């Protein structure tokens, strides 16, 4: 039983890798704790969904970390305990790791990965008429490991091998068909000039001294590994024990930390979900924090002009609201989920927390420290079609805003029998730095809606001066 826990039998048994990145260590620490809070509050969240969202839905920033765990509870604990912040060098195309296949015999039990299983089947075919099945199996397992890494986005700048590993490396490079390479390994054939063994693992591109060496096959240091260290100057080559399923997860996590954009889902399916975003900070890392009270600024000429028309001339801000809306299939998300997503949008974009005030007879603008606007839920219409829903949320978003001491945006939703509609409305001056269409797309993504109808923006034309 203990051995089965250490060496998972299938892909589903491998640990989960949560790959994190941020602009600097402080932002990374905040992101870790936000994610831990989110997962602690929703412990039923599938770890594969978390890994998929972090891999497919996030920008790659230079400061990185990764945690490895088997379930959500363990991942939460690791996120809170971790304080890693790696800032690797920029990786140029083709500057991937050097893979060295040491050719050691494969253990009796290896993780049942798709690439490895296919290579082992081919090894059995190669030995039907005789030959060293142990050598063929060693080559097959190490070839399968390389194929699995390639499928996970690892792009080695070279693949070398020793003994049976030399034939596996030749097949991985495409120099030989896999069947021919496995047969040659079974026959203990001497590699020809085009398939040279490379026990030292000397990089094919010496101009890439920062590329790590990954030794595949042996769970412990061996002669090949010692030669790699001595010849390349890598004092601590990475190792992938092909018998240990957790080693695959650890290797991808370490490559991520070192700046390689690898697939940390490990090839498992998952769906994209809403997760906390990166913290917004106006100051430089290590600088002084914001003052206790919100700072104010003078209005821009653009803002002054709109306030003149809307307040002095008794106009309506509804005449100058920009609205965008979309209709989405399926049931309306829970009110708490919509509120959390709208809070996150306001948190990410401080311009949406702008308010105008005139405390001493002079208009100023300030940014509220927290999100204060809540979504407006229109009454459900059981008979409304998509266009009726769209028109309803558009009209609601266009309603006048109170321009003094209150936020200048609105979010409206309405449910129908088979669709639901979502709209954003914001005061025209805010659209100078916040694209409403992009904001709506971002809000939709936070709610997990993948296939919306095209959005339609309706900016109001600026009136001519009297």
The rounded distance between the terminal residues' Cα atoms is 84 Å
| Mean pLDDT reading | 81
Predict the CATH topology of the largest domain: Chloramphenicol Acetyltransferase
Shape: elongated
For the largest sheet, list the strands in their spatial order: 11-12-13-8-14
How many β-strand stretches?
14
Helix content range of the residues, please? 25-40%
Query: Which CATH architecture of the largest domain is right?
Result: 2-Layer Sandwich
Low-confidence stretches: 1-8, 198-207, 221-233, 282-294, 451-466
The assigned structural class equals alpha/beta
Overall domain count? 3
What is this structure, in a nutshell?
The protein has 466 residues and is α/β, with parallel strands linked by helices. It has three domains: 2-81, Alpha-Beta Plaits; 98-244, Malonyl-Coenzyme A Acyl Carrier Protein, domain 2 (3-Layer(aba) Sandwich); 296-457, 2-Layer Sandwich (Chloramphenicol Acetyltransferase).
Write a structural description.
- With 466 residues, the chain is α/β, with parallel strands linked by helices.
- The chain folds into three domains: 2-81, Alpha-Beta Plaits; 98-244, Malonyl-Coenzyme A Acyl Carrier Protein, domain 2, CATH 3.40.366.10; 296-457, Chloramphenicol Acetyltransferase (2-Layer Sandwich), CATH 3.30.559.
- Helices cover 35% and strands 15% of the residues.
- It has helices at 2-6, 25-41, 47-56, 72-81, 114-126, 133-151, 164-173, 178-186, 223-232, 245-257, 301-312, 335-348, 386-397, 436-446; strands spanning 16-22, 63-69, 98-101, 158-161, 213-216, 238-240, 296-298, 321-329, 354-357, 364-367, 376-377, 409-415, 419-427, 456-457.
- Strands 11-12-13-8-14 form a five-stranded mixed sheet, with helices on both faces. A four-stranded parallel sheet has the order 4-3-5-6. The chain has a three-stranded antiparallel sheet with strand order 7-10-9, with no helix packed on it.
- Helix 2 packs antiparallel against helix 4 (72-81) and helix 6 packs parallel to helix 7 (164-173).
